[in-house]
Amino acid sequence: MHLNTLPLFFFLISGIFCQYDYDPYYPSEPDYGYAPSMYGPSTAVCAPECNCPITYPTAMYCDNLKLKSLPIVPSGIKYLYLRNNMIEGIEENAFDNVTDLEWLILDNNHLENSKIKGRVFAKLKNLKKLHINYNNLTEIVGPLPNTLDDLQLTHNKISKANPNTFEGLVNLTVIHLQHNALSEDTLSGVFKGLNSLLYLDLSFNKLSKLPLGLPPNILMLYFDNNQITNIPAEYFKGFKALQYLRLSHNKLTDSGIPGNALNISTLVELDLSYNHLKSIPTVNEHLENYYLQVNQINQFPVSSFCKVVGVLAYSRVRHLRLDANNLTRADLPHELYNCLRMAAEISLE
What we know:
15 strands, two-stranded antiparallel ribbon, 349 residues
């Protein structure tokens, strides 16, 4: 067992590469870029101001062109990139020629809800990915087609959501809503029925409580950088597959976490760093990565990790961060080494 600093923890899911670090906290947006010289000139059916590489003729790149409106999109295009322009609105007939569109990437524009007309997205019956990060949205866009599996609306001004926004989206797997202005009242019940949802990021919003009505099959759930003060005792009881839970940079205290609220048998990683905890919340023996740095913890009860210690009864924790608390190596009880026998790293400083 080494008492040193925890290295970065990486994981890959659903084609999305997520890097978990503390500064910066989130990875940069995925790079869908291309090199025109590599693929050759645009094909004949391409919009003249855009590029449709010969190697990928069903993809049309219209990035960094200072466009104020959408170009004419020819039929046959399945992957449309319109990043880093000045587009403010989308007319309802904008995609009538491209009903086969599968990816629509609109990051870094000036889009507003009032200028996105009618059912423009719902008409795209094959749409799988819709990215509208870094725009001027104030509400979650909709209606959306039930083929959608990846929705990204980060870095907007979203504070509202229609209760039926996600109704019928049986294929929706990933939702990114971080860096908005959402509250728990706005979100409660909005995600109901999303039985395929595995990844939900609500970090950097205005949550003071955990939203109700989240789907039970979710795998990754992120609430970092909100104003959450407590976790109801039964909140996570119905979750069947939750493995990654982040609640760092909130306002959690000991009284806000009832005894077994975080004793989740499926959980692999739990982040409670940068809160106001004085003791270590009880977790399940199967937890592997536990982040508690920058709290006010001044005691180390082994019972937080192990109900009993024996030949087959011990914690699976491998990485434990306790740095920037009120603990020293002298505060660690001797029985810790039997309980945390699989720990590779425990960070105290």
